[in-house]
Amino acid sequence: MPLQAPPIFVTTSIDENEAQPGPVSPISSSTTRYRRDSDAVTPRTPTGDQITFLGVDGGARSRSSSLGDSSMLSGDTALPDLPYNGIDTISVAEALNPDPGTEADFRVQGINPFAFTAGQLNKFLNPKSLAAYKAVGGVRGLERGLRSDLVAGLSVDEVTLEGAVSFDEATRLKKRGTLGSESTATTGSAADDYTAAKTGGTTRNSAPVERQFEDRRRIFKDNTLPAKGAKSIWKLMWEQYQDKILILLTVAAVISLALGLYETLGVEHPPGSPPSVDWVEGVAIVVAIVIVVSVGSLNDFQKERQFVKLNTKKEDRVVKAIRSGKSVQISVHNIMVGDVLHLEPGDMIPADGIFITGHNLKCDESSATGESDQMKKTPGEEVMRQIEAGTASSKLDPFILSGSKVLEGVGTYLVTSVGVNSSFGKIMMALRHEAEATPLQVKLTGLADTIAYLGGGAACLLFFVLFMKFLAHLPNNNGTAAEKGSEFLDILIVAITLIVVAVPEGLPLAVTLALAFATTRMLKENNLVRVLRACETMGNATTICSDKTGTLTQNKMTVVAGTIGLDSGFSAQTEDAKDEKVSSIPRVVSTFSKWTKDLLLQSIVINSTAFEGEEDGIFAFIGSKTETALLTFARDFLGMQGVAQERANAQIVQLIPFDSARKCMGVVVRLPDGVYRLYVKGASEILLGKATRYISNVGNEGPSDRELTYEGVKFLTDTINLYAERSLRTIGILYKDYSQWPPIGAKVMEDDASMASFDDVFSEMILVGIVGIQDPLRPGVSEAVKQCQGAGVTVRMVTGDNVVTAQAIAVECGIFTEGGVIMEGPSFRKLTEAEMDNVLPKLRVLARSSPEDKRILVRRLKELGETVAVTGDGTNDGPALKMADIGFSMGIAGTEVAKEASSIILMDDNFSSIVKAMMWGRAVNDAVRKFLQFQLTVNITAVLLTFVSAASSVDGSSVLTAVQLLWVNLIMDTFAALALATDAPTPQILNRKPTPKSASLISLNMWKMIIGQAIFQLLITYTLYFGGMTILGYSTENDAALKAAGKATPRDELNTMVFNTFVWMQIFNEFNNRRLDNKFNIFENVHKNYFFIAINAIMVGGQVLIIFVGGKAFSIVPIDGVQWAICVVVASFALPWAIIIRCVPDEFVHKHWHNLVRVFSPPVRALAKLTPKRSEKADYQSDEEKGKANEVKP
């Protein structure tokens, strides 16, 4: 295959908010370094052939990324430009000596085929060390020592390596020529000199991925961090069992079992008496404890597995590497030491390394070093040259740090450390900590503690009452010591079980299950949740600040209109058909001379960073959507043969990358006649201000221009506004010829006198024309915006487009309506806080905004109490995404920085997916409230029923035994959490306003249902327990005979009915709690929730099974069909009773609620003050924080 020219390595975008295209298939590419020759940059291939800088082959780079806004950057790091003293005085041994505690990194198991160890390569950083860099022979020494190639990268055929390269061979061999120079072509590659790969097959096919780079993995490891030790199921069970209540129950169960066994085996029973089964209760409690522990730990185990799966998907991404001379996309986990990786603006750097070559590379290393300024990188060979010449200064920095971000420029770098050996990997390993609790979990934990204190108080009071009764009857108690001990133990068990029922340990479980379920389902609906708390927060979002390009629109740009000069207008839109000056695109282009066509073609193709490639196996232009639209126009109407072919004939002198401040980009080309031509394209209104002349005759074979008059400027301004009103993005195209470059009298760049300062020459240009590009709305966006507005969520559009274009799009998608306000970023940022507060309620569009404007908007909205969601795709959106309550980044078009700063990634870049996230967020909050409403009802009923029945009975026994209460506890804690947490959201969930941050966890409507259902359940159970014998006509006359015969008494049957009715009331009430509003249809979409149906089937089946075979273990007896009917029918009245409760006016409840609060709040507060408060912070501290806290203690 013939060697192709290198791809473009300068990223440009007309609009900084533009998205980047998706991945492309592996293609051929090579990297060169560029040098000047006769006033022009003339790169050369490794074979010495002259090529142009912008030449591109049929394949190309993976994508283009948005540049950061220069207004956000504070400039290069200001370091003194002094000689770097100490490089020559430090010996190799000293420069590469192990630091204390890192000796293991310098040792290698077996033979090391490389010249260096992982420890030696780590010496480049922490702190950055030019001495260590010099000691390894610079980037060329690394190339030889790591058996790589700076141009071709690693070989895809490499498995194991034969032989070994010594340290001396790597660092002392004669330096090869510079990249891209003739000397490079005459010297063999590092792979030829040192590498012999064993592929086990033909060299035409790359080695299997699992077998590639075995030696490299062995010596330097791969780019993954060890999986965080997932807890085993047994450890989770042990942690679940550490609950103090379960330990108390265990003690009680052991004592009960011991006494039961003693009574069964150690005591003589009268002949003919039924066998003693007192030990069954102890066994039943043990079984119940095992079930509670098992269910809880299995839920935790499942949750951990789900989140590990989600995190694996979150952390995996693709990067662009060069292997065997071809640009390929590989998983970030497959990066090896010795790989050559591409760097582009917006990329999160995946591994440490040394900068090879590129253009104007600047990185943000604040996350790794704390250095807030951007760090300009110097190519490795240039650094080595200055070190050898004795002119090296401390400003030289060839080091690429993992975890840092590329802000500007492009290039390639050689990977030197990966995974746990990289600087980012070391930080990540040091900072590993448990996931923080979400705000809802913290709030619920506090509520659970309060309920537990109240339940504990009730249990203590019950124990005191029953113990006093026990002591009072003790003188008349003729039972054995074992029987008396058993009676006391029964009292203790009932009190402890009451605490178990009162403690709502299912609340945190409900949140966990709801979040786990929601995040899994959201992933299927194109929302990847990175930060768990964002899921629940999104449900209460009050405003969304959305990007336009790629989120509201399709990000598929097409040239649909244009004006070349002042007289040649064309349009593909029907509304222009009546305009005599406007014709179809083919008709207008047919009037162009060859010179005009070539000028327009070169302005588009040469002054561009887009290129040809493949997306999903289909030919496509890869780059920003504006540039790909222009290239498509050039191909379809200007006769462009191919991007690579067109660029191969151009001799590039200077590149002016896109700058988001000046909204344009440019390139200087040396023409065959020796003339230097500057092409510029960018935002039309800005470029129009720089033009003084325009092309006057498009049919003329040669330059033909006239002065741009006031009337001409007005005509072009009106044209720009006309395009903007139709939602078209307007792009201006300018050019200017010079006899030499840099022009006489022009300012030059500080670091290169052969490069002119663009701002100094950017004036008195000739206008080629203005084109309008359309980016249509995504399907469903208007409906999604309407849904948000109906849900009480304000949608604002924040865009870099001008006011007219922004308004047209906002009107089309329904964001801007009558009474709304549109502002420009520069005006908005100048407002005082008071003025801003007056504008914000009506502000709907912020046009011509910078990332700083977006950040100011988000900050002020949050200060006003709004819950803010923000979308962003560019590197410069990072601050706003991080500041927002919920940051949405684009999964397809978003840069790595944007994804890192966001909490949720939209996998399809679609605004409609935000609406789905809002629905699921509300579903999570609703699920927790449903469960809370259900559990508090059971809590109140079970505690009062147990207390009253135990206190009123002669022997101190409760109508609900310990084992029965444990079954109820299992129902209301685990099963109900599973059932109520899995309801999927319906469209109706958006028909209400967001819940304010200050709102109580339990609404007044919820209290109405809780108290109403508790009253109903207590009335039913008290009536059955105290009056059931009379109502049902049961007699106690034959109790003694029945007991002697071992048969059930009517009272035993009634107690079984009370237990059965109580459980069935909970089952029916679970259906009531599927709604939190006052609507009646509690069965809505129940057929779609298979979890709910299955769990209720288990609960019903379990209850039936217990009644039929529970026997002595559950202290129940068999009941007949009539008794079953009474239980189920009476319990089913919970459904119509709920309708009655919902009919009670909320105003009536609100009126009397404050009186109840005034009566009951003082004792609750007093009890809370007496109980020790648990530190929520301590519960969720990282290991590092806990360690620091312990160090402070004396």
Give a verbal description of the structure.
It is a multi-pass membrane protein. One of its GO terms (cellular component) is vacuolar membrane. It comes from Tuber magnatum (white Piedmont truffle). Its EC number is 7.2.2.10. By secondary structure, the chain is α+β, with helices and mostly antiparallel strands. Among the domains are: 323 residues, Calcium-transporting ATPase, transmembrane domain; 158 residues, Rossmann fold (3-Layer(aba) Sandwich); 207 residues, Calcium-transporting ATPase, cytoplasmic domain N, CATH 3.40.1110.10. It is 45% helix and 14% strand. The chain contains 43 helices and 32 strands. Strands 13, 14, 15, 18, 19, 20, 21, 22, 23 and 26 form a 10-stranded mixed β-sheet that branches. β30, α31 and β31 form a beta-alpha-beta unit. α9 packs across α11, α17 runs antiparallel to α33 and α34 packs parallel to α37. The chain is elongated, with a radius of gyration of 38 Å. The N terminus and C terminus are likely disordered.
Secondary structure layout:
Elements: E1 27-28, H1 92-95, H2 118-122, H3 130-135, H4 138-145, E2 160-161, H5 167-172, H6 182-186, H7 190-194, E3 197-198, H8 214-220, H9 233-241, H10 244-265, H11 279-315, E4 318-323, E5 326-331, E6 340-343, E7 352-364, H12 366-369, E8 374-376, H13 380-389, E9 399-400, E10 405-417, H14 423-430, H15 439-473, H16 481-502, H17 506-524, E11 527-529, H18 532-538, E12 543-546, E13 558-564, E14 568-571, E15 582-583, H19 585-589, H20 594-605, E16 611-615, E17 618-622, H21 625-637, H22 643-648, E18 651-659, E19 664-670, E20 676-683, H23 684-688, E21 691-695, E22 705-707, H24 710-725, E23 728-738, E24 748-749, E25 752-756, H25 758-761, E26 765-774, H26 781-790, E27 794-798, H27 803-813, E28 821-824, H28 825-829, H29 833-839, E29 843-847, H30 851-863, E30 868-872, H31 878-883, E31 886-890, H32 896-901, E32 904-906, H33 911-952, H34 962-980, H35 1004-1031, H36 1039-1044, H37 1050-1072, H38 1090-1109, H39 1121-1132, H40 1134-1143, H41 1146-1170, H42 1176-1179, H43 1183-1192
Parallel strand pairs: 12-27, 12-30, 14-15, 21-26, 27-29, 28-29, 30-31, 31-32
Antiparallel strand pairs: 1-5, 2-3, 4-5, 4-6, 6-10, 7-8, 7-9, 7-10, 11-32, 13-14, 13-26, 16-17, 18-19, 19-20, 20-23, 21-22, 23-26, 24-25
Helix pairs in contact: 9-11, 10-11, 10-16, 11-17, 11-34, 15-16, 15-17, 15-33, 16-33, 16-34, 17-33, 17-34, 18-33, 20-21, 24-27, 33-34, 33-35, 34-37, 34-38, 35-37, 35-40, 37-38, 37-39
Biased composition (Low complexity): 61-74
Transmembrane segments: 245-262, 282-301, 451-471, 491-518, 936-954, 1007-1034, 1091-1110, 1122-1144
Biased composition (Basic and acidic residues): 1173-1194
